[in-house]
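Example 3.2
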Amino acid sequence: MWNRISELWCQKVHTGAMWPIHGKYICPQCLREHRLAWEGPVRGSDYADPSLRSASMGLASVPSLVQ
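Structure, written as tokens:
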């Protein structure tokens, strides 16, 4: 219960926020993390480069370090 009260207090009273990253931001006064209200759950496809998704390296292309 104390966590809910303190989170509500932080969201209502502390007006500053650090730059949002990975779907959440940090309050600079109490250092609590809060989810962004306007964003849904974070998906891996939001951060991945589409050109790298299908890239794969076979074992033959990796040089052998142990001989």
